[in-house]
Amino acid sequence: MNAMTSTLAAGVTITELAPTTRIALRLADPATVPGLSLPTEVGARSADGSRTALCLGPDEWLIEAPEADRAAVLATLAGISAPHSAVEVSDREITYALEGPAVLDLLATGCPRDLARMPVGSGARTVFDTAQVVLTRETDDRFHLTVWRSFASHVRALLDLAQRELAAGL
Amino acid sequence: MTHFSFAQVVKGALTGQKNWTPQWPDREPKAAYDVVIVGAGGHGLGAAYYLAKEHGITNVAVIDKGWLGGGNTGRNTTIIRSNYLYDESARLYDHALDLWENLSQDLNYNVMFSKRGVLMLAHNVHDVQSFQRHVHSNRLNGVDNQWLSAKEAKLFCPPLDINPNARYPVMGAALQRRAGTARHDAVAWGYARGAAARGVDIIQNCPVTAIRRGPDGRVTGVETAKGFIAAKKVAVSAAGHTSVVMETAGVRLPLESYPLQALVSEPIKPIFPCVVMSNSVHAYISQSDKGELVIGSGTDQYVSYSQRGGLPLIEHTLAAICEIFPIFRRMRMLRKWGGIVDVTPDRSAILGKTPVPGLYVNCGWGTGGFKATPGAAHVLAHTVAKDEPHPINAPFTLERFTTGRLIDEAAAAAVAH
Amino acid sequence: MTSYRLPNRGRVDHRKSVRFTFDGKSYQGLAGDTLASALLANGVHLMGRSFKYHRPRGVVSAGSDEPNALMGTRRGPGRFEPNTRATIQELRAGLEATSQNRWPSLAFDMGAINDNMGSLFSAGFYYKTFMWPRSFWDRVYEPIIRNAAGLGVSPTESDADTYASRFHHTDVLVVGAGPAGLAAALAAGRAGASVMLVDENAEPGGTLLSEPSVVIDGKPAWDWLAQALAELAGLPNVTVMTRTTAIGYYHQNLVGLAQRLTDHLDTAPSDAPRERMWKVRAREVVLAQGALEKPLVFDGNDRPGVMLAGAAQTYLNRFGVKVGDRPAIVTAHDSAWHAAFDLADAGAKPVAIVDVRPAVDTALTDRARALGIEVLLGRTVTGTSGRLRVKSLRVNRMEGGKPGAPRDIGCDAVLMCGGWTPCLHLFSHTQSKLAWDEALQVYLPGKKTEAVQIAGAGRGLWGIASTLEDGATAGATAARDAGHDATAQTHTVTADRTGSGVTCKELPTDKDPGKAKAFIDFQNDVTAKDIRLAVREGMRSIEHVKRYTTNGMATDQGKMSNVNGLMIASDALGKAPPQVGLTTFRPPYSPTTFGTFAGYHKDATFEVTRRTPIDGWAEANGAAFEPVALWRRAWYFPKPGEDMHAAVSRECRAARASVGIFDASTLGKIEVTGRDAVTFMERMYTNPWAKLGVGRCRYGLLLGEDGFIRDDGVIGRLSADRFHVTTTTGGAARVLNMMEDYLQTEWPDLKVWLTSTTEQWATIALQGPNARKLLEPFVEGIDISAEAFPHMAVAECTVAGFPARLFRISFTGELGFEVNVPARHGLALWEKLMAAGQQYDICPYGTETMHVLRAEKGYIIVGQDTDGTLTPDDAGLTWAIGKAKRDFVGKRSLARPDMVAKGRKQLVGLLTDDPKVVLQEGAQIVADPSQPKPMTMLGHVTSSYWSDALGRSIAMAVVVDGRDRDGQTLHVPMPDRTITAKVVKSTVFYDPENTRISA
Amino acid sequence: MLLIYCPYCEQDLPELEFAYAGEAHIARPADPAALSDEEWRDFLFIRSNPKGVHFERWRHLNGCARFFNAARETVGDKFLATYKAGEPRPDADALLASPTGDAK
Ligand SMILES: Cc1cc2nc3c(=O)[nH]c(=O)nc-3n(C[C@H](O)[C@H](O)[C@H](O)COP(=O)(O)OP(=O)(O)OC[C@H]3O[C@@H](n4cnc5c(N)ncnc54)[C@H](O)[C@@H]3O)c2cc1C
Ligand SMILES: NC(=O)c1ccc[n+]([C@@H]2O[C@H](COP(=O)([O-])OP(=O)(O)OC[C@H]3O[C@@H](n4cnc5c(N)ncnc54)[C@H](O)[C@@H]3O)[C@@H](O)[C@H]2O)c1
Ligand SMILES: Cc1cc2nc3c(=O)[nH]c(=O)nc-3n(C[C@H](O)[C@H](O)[C@H](O)COP(=O)(O)O)c2cc1C
Ligand SMILES: [Zn+2]
């Protein structure tokens, strides 16, 4: 008799995404930025066409845009008149897309946050194992995990282990 | 006091153990003492013992809020060594080591001091440099410590994994052969028995709630759960709680108290011959005479007086142990516990006089004061008896935090570049 | 051998037999058995030997509180573990079990000689002897004591299994799936709360598994159980996990669970972890851990065949195993009577029920008599006989409070029950208080510190009806507190077995109590007289009693012994039990594998290994690596046949002669931007920054507020309000955190922001006279000629088509550049430079060569030449302090008396008299090598190398008043010889005029 | 592992995201040079280390990255309040008296 009712199901795919433009934007008052809607609640993300702005802290946003828009985004940010800081970090990190019905279980092997409560379309900086990561929830069962480049292979190795574990079904 | 001997043990066996008497009487406090010591840990009890034995001061009370030896003395991983870098530390800890070697005979109480050797592992170039510095300094200070290659370390401690491709390869080790472990509880009991036999009152379950001072500023005694107890001199040796007690005398200390955890495995037949410490991987391990692996963990990051500690630290500690000793991965943890350690900014103790006449303090031993027990107790007794520090504890003043003459062993083992 | 298995009884699969071995002998059990139940079914009671006296021992319990039946278990290579409780280990095909702590065999053990000398080995005996002669301790006594230690043997191979871990969040966590826990999970689950229900056992049900005759909601207990489990399985918000022990209850309702996944399987699926640690954060916790049965304490209560009555009932009803044909029952509680009745129903012939109470419920006595069982009330038990299996029980009538004449009752098992202890271990982990209940003579939950409910037998309730009701209420309350609309369901129970009992100390005896071996802690061989001896010797605190006798310190952690120990100690002390108190319960609830705690942190994933974008190239090109902080860095690049020394010499020569290339990507980088960037830099670093021009760099020195050197690095000004700060590799995170701390909490008014860009950039250093020649063709957008781009210049440009930040800096003393390109291009740039560099015999070098080259120039390495006790002046860096600055971090500390006093250690150069001798780093320096020990040491060697460029050894050292000793001869005493060396005030050994750097 | 309410993220979050940062409300003196050696020592090293309510700093390092303050009871390790940097220190007795004891 083996009572093991759980929501576990096998199947998460892990894909490394192609580089995008990423800017760490810092400023005191988001209202002072023309041409960019910056959400003010930590964790909230807004989108302007292909550009997104994720609020990571009360004065911090991660702006993401396609590679092709890099110059345009930088130009927009350069136009901010209020005191601010815009630093390109496109190469600082690697993003993995994690997708599948067991994605929450996969993430629960390393992330102490209650991700079931993270609304689709939002995100947060948190930890996976000992690595700092930014997680965004793209759909119910798709997350993007962004991690500093030198930590990526460690995080990837753990994700792969967890993926195999989920597949084993215990 | 019944003198302990093999003959007495045989007598006990033949008489249904009727021949034994209390090792220390349970005392109610007198109205006044020459010296009151706050804290019946190894340090406090030891100081009372040496006050009586070496200075003839026997009108002494040792007062504890709980049961004697129930503080860090009763909850530490018992690593004893003296291979410290700085002259000041080396003198102090080596003095203690000298006393450890004859403590059982001195106390007529077997504290099971075991010179099984302490091996400190080097895992990177920086560790190697740092430990070599210790080895050289120790040698010129007359302190036993030697450098071993990884292979030699493995010979000394067969369960060690010296695979060069490990995440933290063993690049060598410093070995102090004279170092080792002791039976922690027996240290408190032996000192308590020895002190009591010489007239010291040991008063348990009696929290000291305040230190009282006279109009001239001098101490007059202590306020306790059992009322006021007058004292000409008061020595506070309350480990994690020292700053709380000293505050009542108006003395603020550079101390913060943190929970430090330790754990034991289920008992196994002897497999682990020595003590191994790895500062880089955060693993501290030995095997007790009962057979458990005794493992030291870390401090929680926040100030706390709860003898608890969190789960992530234990996970990290056991991962580290398994990394260096993969054969132990299937061993089981039997029990884990916490103690409250008081930490100074330079990680060295404060031992000596205070700005308050008649008030002495012994604290700040952090995660490593068990090894100092006999030495610290001995020089504390001297300081209290003579109202001036022994040359060995003279550098461990409170003033050093004002003037900048810190004794920073941790900083000396600086972090890698 | 006769079988004690009863067909058609229990929950085992009678059609599926399982082969296993015990001490090499092959046996058969059934699927669903534990190792213990299978052995009992084969008539094997002798399962172990005790710790100290090596007494033969049989199984006592049927759960994780088992102190005796501990075995080594094994499944193939790398899969052996000692001290496995046979009562928990489920049978699997091919399981190999071996008994422990005996030699040569379990039945005949030489160590049992200790048993005859038991009176010598009373509590605390070793503190009193083994002290003479003094030298015998190290050589004779201690080795003997140590050899006697331990139970099982350690594994000797690396573990072949893997372990997992999982975070989990839930509204309600229910610990224990007995009736109370099941009812709680049903109440909370039906209300829609997310629920996790866990049980340590292989199957849920708790007591219900041993009590099939109870009828719940009109159904036999097991049918009700199946239905309840089916309902729970159907609720998507409920997770039920068995073989899962709640091991520890931590802060704010974090509960650690150890889940055993494969040990019970005949074959484990590949990639399946052996065990998993769950870290569950619950809004509400319901503890329904039940109660633990206590043994009775009497002489000979430890013989094989003497066991807990509840365990016998479990073996019978759950496993279909009769523990004996003629059991005698000894009890202080009604529950054992039911065990006897069940056994009689199953065909055993209980010989007698001996109850210490003078009177019990007549329903019980009537039933016993009806079943033909002799009833003996108001008795005491004073002994047993039988060597490897109990043969008889010695019973005395109590007369006037004293034992009367004895009578021996023949039997083949003794089932004892000393009452039940509510299991409050996890509750106690939270530092919540226990309260002594005078009526029940047990500890019950007192004031709680967490959002927790206790339900069922854990709260002293008895009987399935009250337990179910209590569980339902607790579950509903927990769900409501977690924000769900919940009501407690009701259950009707018939054929319930309620009951009561009394709490005893050791049973009265007519023998010499000093000789009686009445065990309390079976595993550690602690007897009642040991407790009394401890008290006689002044151990008046229960904590002292525990430590002096080791009562409760065995692998069951006092589950069986704590309360009996307390009752006897309180009697000896003449105090009521609550004045004596219990010792502290600590995690884990049951012993838990190290691997489960370690989880995924093993081998390659033990800890992060940070690698640069160029790491792969270095590996492919034979680099030796060294770990630096979390990074691995190329240390040197040996050619075939070269040792480190040869490789480093070659690399050094190449950089000085032509050009070397070095991966500096690990250096920390922080972009400091914003209107007030200069002000911020002025306050953080010792140096002045206001006048640093855009496009220029400066060496920056960072102190702690205590005035000691913390970090350094070259800092470039990219624009009026933007600095590119570099830090040491190991210091990057610390420095950023420290800067953020000051910025956010001391100077929140400053409009400055910090961004870590360590990993944005790959950093490649080109160093050597040909560095410019090599680099120039790749650079677009700026002129890097000596005049246009002098030493300490910085510019943004394009290098090899990649956007770049180009620094003209040198840590080698040669003409040098550091090219920063976006990390993804790092490897490509490196390869291009390597290719183009062939014409200059370009040479990749590692950290060791970097260290030599910088030492030749006297540049310090923070953490090697400084160690957290050096001030800027000590390190000869006074020039780096902005003289006009009113304040910077650490400035005030530099004025403290001991920071300006004479006698500080200062960094100087040290040249050995014999130029061929390379000093050892860390070697100590003295003025007089012939002084006795302890010697007065003046300082130590911080850096020391063979310098190819200078054709001699060089060293740096910190020496007391070192700069005043210019030209002095000092000594470095080594174990085998003393080396003499001269102090040189300047640490710059190579090209002091800096002609090469400005080339 | 503590559960900590971040006043910026407005959520209870696991301790693993946070870094402890020592006693709170110890402002760096505006003019350190004006301090005596004893006053400077007090700033550098003397800490209240109470057995009771401790005002302390935490950083939501792996989160919004903000430093903030907390009042925590050091015997049971329970947070009584967390509040943003710069906000005034709440009254310890009032916090202890608050019925839930875990006011945000
Ligand atoms: C888990 C752990 C592992 C350790 N490992 C090692 C190790 O391997 N090696 C090593 O050398 N050191 C180690 N240590 C440190 C070592 O245990 C201590 O430094 C040392 O035991 C301190 O001894 P003590 O006598 O000063 O303090 P304690 O033994 O703590 O005694 C202080 C006493 O003061 C009493 N007290 C407090 N307040 C009051 C009051 N108001 N009134 C009356 N009494 C009061 C306490 O009840 C206590 O009994 C470890 C510590 C811990 C917690
Ligand atoms: N023989 C008897 O007559 C007898 C004995 C005991 C209980 N009872 C009756 O049964 C009722 C008990 O019901 P209950 O539900 O309170 O207790 P229970 O003993 O039926 O269930 C408790 C369950 O909790 C599990 N457990 C304990 N600690 C655990 C941990 N740390 N992690 C995971 N699981 C753990 C145990 O394995 C057990 O299955 C009592 O009221 C009593 O009437 C009868
Ligand atoms: C060196 C050492 C060895 C120990 N060995 C055991 C042991 O074998 N069994 C056990 O239960 N506890 C052992 N303990 C732990 C104590 O039981 C206890 O947890 C510790 O003294 C702290 O006290 P507390 O848990 O009562 O607060 C040991 C402790 C130390 C310091
Ligand atoms: Zn936050």
UniProtKB/TrEMBL annotation, chain B:
Q: Which Pfam families match?
A: DAO
Q: Enzyme class, one word?
A: oxidoreductase
Q: Which residues form the Rhodanese domain?
A: 35-79
What are the GO MF terms of this UniProt record? nucleotide binding; sarcosine oxidase activity
The coenzyme or cofactor needed here is: FAD; FMN
Which SUPFAM superfamilies is this protein grouped with? FAD-linked reductases, C-terminal domain, FAD/NAD(P)-binding domain
Q: Name one GO biological process term.
A: tetrahydrofolate metabolic process
Concerning PROSITE patterns, the annotation shows: RHODANESE_3 (PS50206)
**Cellular component terms, GO, for this chain's entry?**
cytoplasm
Q: Which UniProt keywords apply?
A: Cytoplasm, FAD, Flavoprotein, FMN, Nucleotide-binding, Oxidoreductase
Q: Give the enzyme's EC designation.
A: 1.5.3.24
NCBIfam families attached to this UniProt entry: soxB (TIGR01373)
Q: Which PANTHER family match?
A: FAD-DEPENDENT OXIDOREDUCTASE DOMAIN-CONTAINING PROTEIN 1, SARCOSINE DEHYDROGENASE-RELATED
Q: What is this protein called?
A: Sarcosine oxidase subunit beta
Which species is listed as the source?
Amaricoccus macauensis
UniProtKB/TrEMBL annotation, chain C:
User: Which InterPro entries has this protein been placed in?
Assistant: 2Fe-2S-bd_N, BFD-like_2Fe2S-bd_dom_sf, FAD/NAD-bd_sf, FAD/NAD-binding_dom, GcvT/YgfZ/DmdA, GcvT/YgfZ_C, GcvT_C, GCVT_N
EC assignment: the record states 1.5.3.1
Q: Does the keyword Oxidoreductase apply?
A: yes
Q: Which residues form the FAD/NAD(P)-binding domain?
A: 171-438
Keyword annotations for this protein, in alphabetical order, are: Oxidoreductase
A Pfam family annotated for this UniProt entry: SO_alpha_A3
- Tagged with keyword Isomerase: no
Task: Name the PANTHER family for this protein.
Answer: AMINOMETHYLTRANSFERASE, AMINOMETHYLTRANSFERASE, MITOCHONDRIAL
The family annotation for this protein states: Belongs to the GcvT family.
What this protein is called in its record is Sarcosine oxidase subunit alpha
Instruction: Please give the organism.
Output: Amaricoccus macauensis
Task: Tell me the organism's taxonomic lineage.
Answer: Bacteria, Pseudomonadati, Pseudomonadota, Alphaproteobacteria, Rhodobacterales
Automatic annotation (TrEMBL), chain D:
Q: What is its EC number?
A: 1.5.3.1
Q: What class of enzyme is it?
A: oxidoreductase
Tell whether Transcription is among the UniProt keywords. no
The reply on keyword Oxidoreductase is yes
GO MF terms listed in the record are: sarcosine oxidase activity
* GO annotation terms (biological process): tetrahydrofolate metabolic process
Keywords of the record, alphabetical order, are: Oxidoreductase
Positions in coiled-coil regions:
none
Which protein are we looking at? Sarcosine oxidase subunit delta
